[in-house]
Amino acid sequence: xxxxxRAEVFVASPGRTFVTLRITTSDGVTGLGDATLNGRELAVAxxxxxxxxxxxxxxxxxxIEDMWQYLYKGAYWRRGPVTMTAISAxxxxxxxxxxxxxxxxxxxxxxxxxxxxxxxxxxxSGTDVPSLLDDVQRYLDLGYKAVRAQAAVPDVGGTYGVRxxxxxxxxxxxLPDEQPWDTEAYLRFAPTYLDAVxxxxxxxxxxxxxxxxxxTPIEAAxxxxxxxxxxxxxxxxxxPAENQEAFRLIRQxxxxxxxxxxxxxxxxxxxxLITEQLIDYVRTTVVHAGGITxxxxxxDLAALYQVRTGSHGATDLSPVSLAAAVHIDIAVxxxxxxxxxxxxxxxAEVFRSGVTFADGMLHPCEEPGLxxxxxxxxxxxFPYEPRYLPVARRLDGSVHDW
Length: 402
Ligand code: CS2
Ligand code: MG
Fold this sequence. Notes:
This protein has helices at residues 41-56, 64-74, 81-102, 106-109, 129-141, 183-201, 217-226, 247-253, 267-275, 291-304, 319-329, 345-350, 376-379; strands at 4-12, 18-25, 30-34, 118-126, 146-151, 178-181, 206-210, 234-236, 258-260, 281-282, 308-309, 338-339, 351-353, 356-358, 361-363, 372-374, 391-394, 399-400. It is an alpha/beta fold.
């Protein structure tokens, strides 16, 4: 029987920080897992290196479900982003290995294709409406069928989602960047630029918007109602989701579809949202919600309630979890859309991925496993650089949800 012989944790910053787990079996088969938790990377690296790696050595890599139960129940302290990201990385690496041993791309182990390609959306943004419209045009010219739109709120300064470089990267400072927030200014301005996008480009593509946890339920209800004419594909994270019941109030006031889940890390964290049909898309991911094994459970529960998938796919999710996401997305029956922001060139020097983009869709690699390789020699050229996500403060100085 093949056993787990080695488990290595790599922390490197090729363009941004990624934590990557590589498991190697006694037969020399390797598997990769993404363990990146933006702004708290070393917590997961230590959880893996100091607490999980000693448990993996000698175990049977084929027993993926058993390993998941062993690491989840064996922790005693359950759930939460650090624990679940570490478990996700182990799980994803074992699926990569299983695919390689079987000689099949992972999606074939998940039931094969349900669709020809995975529709994706990317991030258009601007410091004002004209620059936002130019950026939307750019993504439509690249063939995207779906585009997210975010713009800076005039006179308030930094606002969530406005790109500075080639890809949007919010973790850009060595201490948290404190950004001003004014809910009323946002509520007045954001609907106007979403209307402007529709006025310029029409309704022949999907338009998305991320509220990023910033509103109270009644403010979110007001916003959702106001933007109904823009026919959004979804309004994302309208209000913090710890209180899942809060979404019922939003639901009562607007038909704008709701998407939640990128910061949620288990089926129990989205159970009420799904079973009460309080959301339309669930955004949980391979890297933060328990790997392929657990994400399938979440998506199968969602399918029972006509909730579709819409996994998070920002730059802080590595090419490893993006590839795993595409393998799931191509197979699940209730796929909705996949976020795809791409990565900077330095990232591609370390991660070789077989995922391809064409005609507004991503396509999985046909190689056995996930179809991603990690070049640790190249990674040595990009030593770890600590970065923090911003903190939002209201105009009175109190902390707000960033
Ligand atoms: C955002 C992310 O892509 C999204 O929907 O919510 O950019 C998020 O802010 C980052 O992934 C946080 O690390
Ligand atoms: Mg988001």
